[in-house]
Each structure stands twice: as structure tokens, then as C-alpha cells.
Amino acid sequence: xxxxxxxxxxxxxxxxxxxxxxxxxxxxxxxxxxxxxxxxxxxxxxxxxxxxxxxxxxxxxxxxxxxxxxxxxxxxxxxxxxxxxxxxxxxxxxxxxxxxxxxxxxxxxxxxxxxxxxxxxxxxxxxxxxxxxxxxxxxxxxxxxxxxxxxxxxxxxxxxxxxxxxxxxxxxxxxxxxxxxxxxxxxxxxxxxxxxxxxxxxxxxxxxxxxxxxxxxxxxxxxxxxxxxxxxxxxxxxxxxxxxxxxxxxxxxxxxxxxxxxxxxxxxxxxxxxxxxxxx
Length: 280
Fold this sequence. Notes:
alpha+beta; 3-stranded antiparallel β-sheet
């Protein structure tokens, strides 16, 4: 009698064909996932760029209605007599830490911030969507993220007791801009930027023009780039050149102040050049 071999039903996959298809899916996933991750990072970068632009627009509107005076920009976590200026007059009044301090999550600062009315009291614009960095103790407490990623150029705005004449005592020889009109090149002086999560503190971004070290570090959430907004209202992303400027986005990695070798000074020089001008 002839032997009849069982056939696979018409249109069905054999085991070998199924394994080949699964292998191809795995290869395609391996190729696509990094591209999707980069696309997601680019999208978050665009959102972040839009947010720092919104903040700078609010900063400009405030000055326009305050007879050209810029909003207070105080170093809240430095040893200074805080009683001289009410912290609630500051553009933000919270200090970021890696502990469970309420300033890390309490968005009530937007209700008292002088910029709040120009932002519809929206708190979301103060945090880059890529910033989900938390300490272990914060994760264990169930936190999803901290409340702010953005800092202000320390040389822009009334720095209270740090101002002596036309300069800031923490950056001597360089001009403290107290009004919009005082900024000689608004398209060149930055107002706001993403700051590294291990550096951000009080949102008072300062680097001395006469020191070869980072006191505060910019963020690099967006494929090695950070976003900055300038006094004329435009915003741009800037890619940092050196790994020294881009420590991992984790707690306790920045080791500030961070000395900068001359061979890796371009990133720091780029920031300092856009921070202020020499007092004439």
C-alpha cells in the first residue's frame, strides 16, 4: 500500500518557518528600538526647548510690566542673610536635594512666583520631561520625579545681597544685569537652562569667569545636549563636547566644584561667554 505522509494544512507555518519569522522580528526589534529611543529623546528635547522658551517669554513679560526691572534671582541655599529679601519674591523659592525635603515635590512655588501669572500658574514648564532622576530614598518613597529641572543664569536679575554696584560679589568683575536694557546683546546672554540633576540646588546657575572649574553643571538629557533660552526670547539646544561636562544623570556624581583641564575647557568657556560681560 502506498504511504501517505501527513501534510501541513494549507497556509499554515511549519516550525522552521515560525522560528525564522521570530528571529527576523528579534533582529528588527534590535534595530528599531535604539532608533525609537533616540526619537523619543528628540521629542522630549523639543518639548523641553518649548518650555524654556515659555519661561523666558514670561520673564520678559514680567520685566515689561515692572518698568524694565528683572525678576529677583537669589541664591537661596547660600549662606546669606535671607531676611534681606523675601524668598517668595524670587522666580522660584524651592531648593532641590536628594532627600525627602518638600521642596523637591511641592509645586506650590508656582503660586507665589512672580512669573506664575504669565505662565497660567502651570508647573509643568519647570521640568524637562526627560528628567526622572531620583535618589534611592526618593524612589522608595514612591516619588516619580522632582518638580524642577530649570535654573536661571545667576548674573541675570536682582541677586539681592550678592549685588555690589554693577557686579555680583560671587563673580567679581562681571556685570549683574538688573534691567532688560542693561543687557548689551540679548541674543547672546542666556537666561534659563536645563541644569544637571546633581547640581541644580536652588536654581541659581553660577560659574565664575575667572576660575577653570564647574561650580554648576548644565544638563545633557538630550543625546548629550542641553537647552538654553536667551534674553531676546529665542531658545536653542547645545551639544556638549566633553564627557567631563556630561556625568551620568544620577545622584552624587558631579563632585562639584569640578576642575576643568585646559584641553577640555571649551564647554565651560562657551557657557561663561554667554553668562555676562566685563564691568566697564
